[in-house]
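Q: Study each token:
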Amino acid sequence: MPAMRKNISQIHHLHATGPLGFGIVTYRPGGNLGMRTQENVQLVVIHRGELHLRIDAAEVHVPAGHGILLEPGHRETFQFSTRQETTHTWCQYPREMSPGPLVAPPVAAMGVPAPCSPWLLGTMRAGWRLPAPGGSAEDVRIRLAAVLTAMAEFVRPILHAQAEVRARHGPRERATAGAPGSVAARPPGITPPPLARLSAALMEKLDHPWTLDELARAAGVSRGHLIKLSREYWAATPMEKLWRTRVDHAALLLRDTGLSIGEVAYRTGFANPFHFSRRFSQAYGRNPRAWRAAAWGN
């Protein structure tokens, strides 16, 4: 512990609720951690500085505004920026702890650095403003739901990108992508900068009545270039991606909040609950009310 403390400039927030862990720490320039064996499912997000991470034999770079989901059982060494302080946050749950009715992050998203949405960056940086930690089963359930919601927000664009890579490259790529125990073999989850900018803009103003011209301006490219990038990396037009993002975020709100169906529709940019129900049913195979009931185990 003394060796680790020498690397740290400030511990902003650090606590555990039963087996769940949360933290915000700033490391001095050149700070490091490890080698260690990862014991948990852990989401690490870099807010300032950068992280060079070694996972077994793989080298991974995680810049500011990006995160990485770490899988139990791997050997890890963290090397933080040598030029400036690095502030990072994390949340985790132990591998032996079942998420129960909630959905655990899929293995295919582990070890892939990717951009974080403004919502996720803000949530992680806020220090998990939840009730004071305690040991009750309800405290653990609330915090596990918060951890899994954050992880779901992080992995969704990674899984979309991986599915699109597999679709473009055919059977041979699908056979090698995501080979067990191999971080390097998995398809990259890094999105081109214009699409990353657009994704961040969408999540910040999901209820805005976006036009194609506005989407192109948010991405910082022409309409034609945006359409080309969107079809290549998302296998969808920009407007199709907008509606898919709205529906996917609506599913999170349905599962993880008590908002009414109408309020979820309003917050995710649908004209009315009927339009929302039609789009949601097309994407998820059942209407929002039925999908929520199943997600809640009712």
Remarks:
- The first strand starts at residue 8 and ends at 17.
- The longest helix spans residues 137-176.
- Residues 264 and 298 are 19 Å apart (CA to CA).
